[in-house]
Amino acid sequence: MVNQTPSKSNRSYSEKRGKIAGSSAAGLRELLELRRNVASIRDVRQLEAALTFSNTLSCVFMLTGNIGVIKGYVDLFKQHDIPVFVHVEKIGGLSFDQPGLEYLANAIKPDGIITTKIQVVKKAQKLGLTTIQRFFLIDSEGLANITQSLDQVQPDVIEIMPARIPEVLGKVREMTKLPIISGGLLTQRKHAEECLAHGATAISSSSPSLWKESFGLTDV
């Protein structure tokens, strides 16, 4: 069973993080710059690990669950003062049309959302949700797609996948001043450090072995 009481050793940082997170998009940016490490949770069995390593994480991305359980997951992380962002296209039974996003904002109440879709970013922003837009760079056309998308809407943060193309991150950084998270195919610390050195604000990973790593500016 997941422990729902923050450990004493984490409280001082959690209190600080809770105050920062209260400022929404600006808070997320500060947390990304502070810890530079995001846990992408793809399996419910990873919840415990994410709580264990909360002192090294900026926030968590929920990429698993369904409409019946997602509020419980969100509430769990909120109880530990860990910002949580829900990937709306990964949650079973959750519609990402206007009524679905209104339900997410008013009933589930995550700190924000992750999406690949321009229209979802626009709708979520109108509801006051912090937005993270995910892009996949599989070829040179992907860079053009990022430019075209950002011309239409400016999310609060962008996530670039896969992460194992750090030299391309430099080109993305030249395109925007938005915070950049780089994720996908990250399994080793050196891979994360390469991304951070090439312009990523933070990295995201589904590997608990990376969640425990410290990637603060003085650590890389």
Automatic annotation (TrEMBL):
Give the InterPro entries listed for this entry. Aldolase_TIM, GlpP
Task: Output one GO MF annotation.
Answer: transcription antitermination factor activity, RNA binding
Q: Which domain of life does the protein's organism represent?
A: Bacteria
One Pfam family for this entry, by name?
A: G3P_antiterm
What biological process terms from GO does the record include? glycerol metabolic process; positive regulation of DNA-templated transcription
> Could you tell me which species this protein originates from?
Paenibacillus lactis 154
This protein is called: Glycerol-3-phosphate responsive antiterminator, GlpP
